[in-house]
Amino acid sequence: MVRSHSLVLFFGLAGLASVSAHKEPKTEAEIETQRALQRAAYYCAPAVGEFTAARKRAWRQQVLAGLPLNQAAFAPTAGNPSLPTNDELFASGTFESEAQPSSRAQQELLACDVVEDETEMQNNTCVLTPIVTEGPYYHKMGHPIRQNIADYQIGLLTYLDIGVIDVNTCKPLPNVLVDIWQANATGHYAGHPDPAPHLKDEQPQVGGKRAGLLSAFPRTNYHEQWLRGAWKTDSHGIARFTTIFPGYYTGRATHVHAKVFTSWTENPNGTFDGHKLAHVGQFFFEDELNLQIDKMWPYVENPIRDIRGRTRNWRDSLNIFEDSHGPEGEYNPIFKMHLLGGVINQGLVGFITMGVNASYDLDNWWKG
């Protein structure tokens, strides 16, 4: 059976009902559109702050409450909180903020945790993300609807908690489809394993906005789907994914791509066809964290590690990292990361909130 999904809303930002996607605003009208979204960010600040804080509270409560094990080394009998499995993390009700610890010891653990200011927008937890290019590795057809996108890719376990807020209402957006895709630990995208034969000896661009980039690898494998997937936001406006920490490739800072669809069709084979596209963006990670993960296997096997090395955020080609901050530099497109356990190789969880204008209907398919 083919199912269609759509979101119908009424909007209050006059003049922003129909736009086209751009890597960066250039005309006065485009810059004003971005500034209107920026003003909405400050208007929405308390709502976004509480939204993110509630998600973090729910996470802490579930981990410290001792969910069933997925690693024997963290058995509650050994005095350690357990790590939840993928199914447990995403089960209905797991992240309800009303959940409470069941014992005095668990309450004491929670009491020792950091209490964040829940009425202010934290600079590193929420953005009203500017629209930036989708890049050449998006597959318009065949993205599966699933939360665990890792497949059999090896890498550092990473949970992503992505909240979506409507800038017109400052409220979470339920029932929108968040579609993400990323490179694997050694910097490759599913379906694009090798450069074109005539470009196998190509060297990176020198100078200009494309500095450091190679030509995009063509799609030659039409079966691979790893590290690609989409999931509908729940009633709280949250989509959660299980993945691995992404690797890097020539010219680009480490990043995760995202789209938000307010209308789509679910296909019988578990994939979807996107219709109304409200947002296209990219998320990043702190350079200090990237450098630590570079020391871990299999990230040390990146083929350009000893040739060119990684590209830092501030040197990201095409100015994508900078563009993702908006024309006045007030946005922060960086995940706020937390350790799942006591050390980094036990995994990470990342939080980010993006504000979208659900009235948008973008045409941002890669044109080559």
Protein model, in words:
By secondary structure, the protein is of the alpha+beta class. It has a domain at 1-6 and 125-324 and 345-368: Protocatechuate 3,4-Dioxygenase, subunit A (Sandwich), CATH 2.60.130.10. Helices cover 16% and strands 20% of the residues. It has helices spanning 28-43, 45-64, 86-89, 104-111, 287-293, 320-323; strands spanning 3-6, 126-127, 157-166, 171-172, 177-181, 228-232, 238-244, 255-266, 272-284, 336-339, 348-356. The chain is globular and about 50 Å long. 39% of the residues are buried. Residues 7-23, 68-84 and 92-127 have low confidence and may be disordered.
Summarize the structure.
By secondary structure, the protein is an alpha+beta fold.
What's the structural blueprint in terms of helices and strands?
Blueprint: E1 3-6, H1 28-43, H2 45-64, H3 86-89, H4 104-111, E2 126-127, E3 157-166, E4 171-172, E5 177-181, E6 228-232, E7 238-244, E8 255-266, E9 272-284, H5 287-293, H6 320-323, E10 336-339, E11 348-356
Parallel strand pairs: 2-11, 3-11
Antiparallel strand pairs: 1-8, 3-4, 3-7, 5-6, 5-8, 8-9, 10-11
Shape: globular
**Strand residue content:** 15-25%
- Tell me which CATH architecture of the domain at 1-6 and 125-324 and 345-368 applies here: Sandwich
First and last CA, distance = 33 Å
Rg calc: 20 Å
Q: What proportion of the residues is helical, as a percent range?
A: 10-25%
Keywords: Signal
Protein name: Intradiol ring-cleavage dioxygenases domain-containing protein
GO molecular function: iron ion binding; oxidoreductase activity, acting on single donors with incorporation of molecular oxygen, incorporation of two atoms of oxygen
Organism: Collybiopsis luxurians FD-317 M1
